[in-house]
Amino acid sequence: MACNSCTTGKDGQPRGCKNNGTCGKDSCNKLTVFDWLSNMSLPNGETPFNCIEVRFKNGRKHYYKNPENLSLRIGDIVATQTKSGHDVGMVTLAGELVRVQMKRKKVEEDSEEVLKIYRKASQRDIDIWQTARDKEEAMKVKARQFAIDLKLQMKISDIEYQGDASKATFYYTADERVDFRELIKVFAKEFRTRIEMKQIGLRQEAARLGGIGSCGRELCCSTWLTDLRSVSTSAARYQQLSLNPQKLAGQCGKLKCCLNYELDSYLDALKDFPKTEIKLQTEKGVAVCQKTDIFKRHMWYAYEGEWMNWHKLTTDQANEIIELNIKKKKVVSLEEYAEELIEDTKNDFENVVGQDSLTRFDSPRRRKKRRNNRNRNRRKPQSNAK
């Protein structure tokens, strides 16, 4: 999904399409929001919204005030306020849509969390920021080794430097509480910077690191999904999926978020289905449900003791038999209902041209006959040789 032509160079400028992150695909950034109001002017007398959305490493976003009324566009590199020093990030959204995003994420405009933007980043700011970013991968390797040496049950998944290189945030995952006070001392002595430890969940780790899912596309959590809801095994059961952890688990090791996408459609379709535990009472015997087809609205039943013979019924027929059983009435057999189902043997694809053969333009093969004639001539006795 990402637009490779819009990657940012060391100087903070895009390498490819030169659109500063606003290409037609709108896929230059992680978790991006398409600004469909960018080409629309405000009514007379209206002032633009004073807050800006800024993205940092791996989709981390925050909202900042623009007290200096800087002329900022999507893709600009800015220096923002932090508790100590300053940070460097990229503008991903400006205008009225920022107001909508802040309301959706329940961020108040006047809250203390909304800091301010200092200025557009200078070349010196970008150089310091890029130099710090280049150190992160080597630091992560050392940090993991230090944690192993101290026998801490934790995994350091990512490191993010502050824009002015004055602080490094270590993101880690752990199943239990970890006492990392000794680890912080080792980090401070080795890396000589302020250290902040931040624990994240497994889904958040996958969202930060990114990757390719089994569907062949980038992970939803790292591209557009922000609401990481819990997924239960009942979602797979409703969709009649085999409970295979290797197929149902995502990169984070938990159930895939996409199991929830079509769950509502399955639940709506299952409202008309009778419960599979209900047995059908007939004069021939008791029938038990063996299989259901949600989209075709079919159910297969088999008599007790005759498990190999399945009878296909529609949901309406099954509900009709159940209603009769509630009234203490029995049908003769399931075969009466099963015979009413007319199988659709019509082909899904028809050749409208009427030309079925793909080799209709090929010339008939006559080479075999010619070869046979040649062989016959060779076999004839040469009587004229004398």
Main sheet properties: 5 strands, mixed, barrel
> What is the strand content?
15-25%
What is the first-to-last residue Cα distance? 84 Å
Total number of beta strands: 12
The level of helicity is 25-40%
The value of Rg in angstroms is 34 Å
Mean pLDDT figure: 82
**Overall tally of structural domains:** 4
Order of helices and strands: EEEEHEHEEHEHHHHHEEEEHHH
Number of helices: 11
Main sheet: which strands, in order across? 1-2-5-3-4
Shape: elongated
Secondary structure category: alpha+beta
Low-confidence regions = 19-27
Give the arrangement of secondary structure elements:
Blueprint: E1 51-55, E2 61-65, E3 77-81, E4 86-94, H1 96-104, E5 115-120, H2 123-149, E6 155-161, E7 167-173, H3 181-191, E8 194-199, H4 202-209, H5 220-223, H6 233-238, H7 245-248, H8 263-269, E9 280-281, E10 286-293, E11 298-303, E12 310-314, H9 315-326, H10 335-338, H11 367-379
Parallel strand pairs: 2-5, 7-8
Antiparallel strand pairs: 1-2, 1-4, 3-4, 3-5, 6-7, 9-10, 10-11, 11-12
Helix pairs in contact: 2-3
Descriptive report:
- The chain has helices at residues 96-104, 123-149, 181-191, 202-209, 220-223, 233-238, 245-248, 263-269, 315-326, 335-338, 367-379, and strands at residues 51-55, 61-65, 77-81, 86-94, 115-120, 155-161, 167-173, 194-199, 280-281, 286-293, 298-303, 310-314.
- The protein has 386 residues and is of the alpha+beta class.
- The chain has four domains: 4-120, no CATH class; 128-205, GMP Synthetase, Chain A, domain 3, CATH 3.30.300; 229-263, no CATH class; 273-338, no CATH class.
- The protein has a five-stranded mixed beta barrel with strand order 1-2-5-3-4.
- The model is unreliable at 19-27 (pLDDT under 50).
